[in-house]
Amino acid sequence: MKSVPLYLLFGFLGSGKTTFLKIILDRLGSKKRIGLIQNEFSLSRIESEFLNQSNIEFSLMEVSRGSHICLSQSEDFIPNLSNFIEREKPEIIFIETSGLSDPLKIIKLLESPLLEKLLYLSKLYVVVDASRFYHEVTFLKNTRNQIKHADTVILNKYDKLNRLESPEEIIESYNFKKIESWISNINPFADIIPTTYSDIPKEEINIISSEDFELQDENYFTTRVLTSDRNYSEEEITKLTPLLAGCFKAKGYILNDKNETLALRAENGKVEIIPYNNPLEKSEIIVIGEYDKISSLTNHFA
Description:
Distance between the termini: 30 Å
Order of helices and strands: EHEHEHEHEHHEHHEHEHEEEEH
Largest sheet: 7 strands, parallel
Oligomer: single chain
Radius of gyration: 19 Å
């Protein structure tokens, strides 16, 4: 059995996460078996709209009754998710988290023996309300941390930045450019997609749709979060590069022996390592790929 691609969805309450999932179901539900993991409140909103549409194929798993607790604190989440995958056999899975969730803690759940062969992290989305961006990023450490580890930031409700201007004018405006710059400072490798009503472009839908089990060879894809308090020499980082290139995907931040912070991304055999202008307590890398290749990287990173 090939491991299933997982999409993590972060964002503060009211940012547009559930609307994003409705769009995913509407445009992909007739093509893919989609698994949705949500809390009870969001679950009811999805059920009421799609449950009676016979052309939409999806399965729902409720995380907790009437609660927005962090997934990583739910003792039965791992076995329930494992059973859900074995029973429903989804082709892709979306997990909607709360605005207070820590991405690395949730991703580390995938290292569980019950889950490591069943699914892998394909992409991490963060949905941000553009009209509340400054408040959330300034006062909410959780939002900054989610953006820091995101693959893609959905800059939703950007039309509210100035109701007197057209969307085209807003995208070229100083306020919008400033938000883009702030996101890029937090995460220099994040893709930024401006939306209204979380309406992501067709190109993004196609990227999700084209995620293919056949990318995996004889070994299943798995996911690891590597962390270290060490500072790495230039020679060690150089040796790390071909190991990163051998992974399906990798991203993160690393401290060198000059106490400088570097941001890195690896995909399709290409590795980028650039200076990062924010302080870092420890090196942390998310790696996705075949088990044997990740094991080699893990041993080197120790």
